[in-house]
């Protein structure tokens, strides 16, 4: 057997919808499927406005544009995240303030946020790691008390819920990824969710997305000519990709259930062996309904982590780890951070192992992964 870490799921309708999009002869960013997907997201996840963009990185950049960051403005975020969360702030000239995580979920620890809030703090960027929600009640309460904005990096959390509410719709803005590595994909893609009925903010998001112009209004026939109004960028996704994505979103809950099957298999088998194998499984708080994006567990030290991954690779089972915390990367160090600044982030990120999780994993493959994993873990105790 040869178990890949990732095999993207295709519904079979992707090419049919792409051909349909082509036949409608409008394949740039304001086409039939783009609007169809945006409406789908607005209705299913219940947000005021969804705009498809080329990636979650683009959604984060568009979010940070909307913040109007000025020099020395501060933005709070975890260091245990993908670099796009941080890039979006640096691109607008802001300053990043990293906060340590809760290692049960690897999400930002709300009890460590308040001490980092200053008069310069503009926003908190939360990252819902593995599709499991951060403690949004506490974070929103803090944000309200200090009059700061909450932006959700929900790249991994499309179709996850917190207390019944979809992630990406709880903060002021939410950012989704439809990258091939995520649960619902179109190769490269993303969306920004604008969770306010303030038309000025929605208008501005459309303007920034269309190179700083009111072209979207022209498409809707609300103005006869469009013009350049402010600094913008091109954050528009082709209708071809939207068509591909629509096929995936039609099977949103089927895909989630298939991932749950894999997750539950690992979880139910390994939870009984936690002590014996000296591992710690990820924790899903009761108020969270995740999308099963990642299955991870922690071992007791980095050395063992590396050996386990190596031995699994030898057995043709691809397991991986991530992230190197941003604050101890070369750029993080240039920004003034150093080892020891975020002890929990540094410690847990070195002990984390991710197992393959995707719909096409067969039961026989899962049993093969489990048997070998348990064997390797026993031998490395
Ligand atoms: C994948 C990911 C991103 C980036 O998504 P793209 O669509 O590839 O730009 C950002 N943040 C997190 C937490 C991610 O996992």
Helix and strand run: HHEHEHEEEEHEEEEEHHHHHEEEHHHEH
Strand percentage: 5-15%
Mean pLDDT equals: 97
**Helix percent band:** 25-40%
Structure description:
The structure is a single chain. Helix content is 39%, strand content 15%. The radius of gyration is 21 Å and the shape is globular. It has 381 residues and is α/β, with parallel strands linked by helices. A seven-stranded mixed beta sheet has the order 1-11-10-7-6-2-3, sandwiched between helices. A three-stranded antiparallel beta sheet has the order 9-8-13, with no helix packed on it. It contains 14 helices and 15 strands. The mean pLDDT is 97. Helix 1 runs antiparallel to helix 8, helix 3 runs parallel beside helix 4 and helix 9 (252-271) packs parallel to helix 14 (363-379). Pyridoxal-5'-phosphate binds at residues 55-57, 81-82, 84-85, 127, 153, 155-156, 177, 179, 190.
What is shown here, in short?
This protein is an alpha/beta fold and 381 residues long. The protein is built from 14 helices and 15 strands.
List keywords for this structure.
381 residues, alpha/beta, seven-stranded mixed beta sheet, three-stranded antiparallel beta sheet, 14 helices, 15 strands, globular, binds pyridoxal-5'-phosphate
Fold blueprint:
Blueprint: H1 14-23, H2 32-45, E1 49-53, H3 56-67, E2 74-78, H4 83-91, E3 95-99, E4 101-102, E5 107-108, E6 121-127, H5 136-145, E7 149-153, E8 161-162, E9 165-166, E10 173-177, E11 190-194, H6 199-209, H7 215-219, H8 239-250, H9 252-271, H10 274-277, E12 280-281, E13 288-289, E14 295-298, H11 302-314, H12 330-334, H13 343-349, E15 352-355, H14 363-379
Parallel strand pairs: 2-3, 2-6, 6-7, 7-10
Antiparallel strand pairs: 1-11, 4-5, 8-9, 8-13, 10-11, 12-14, 14-15
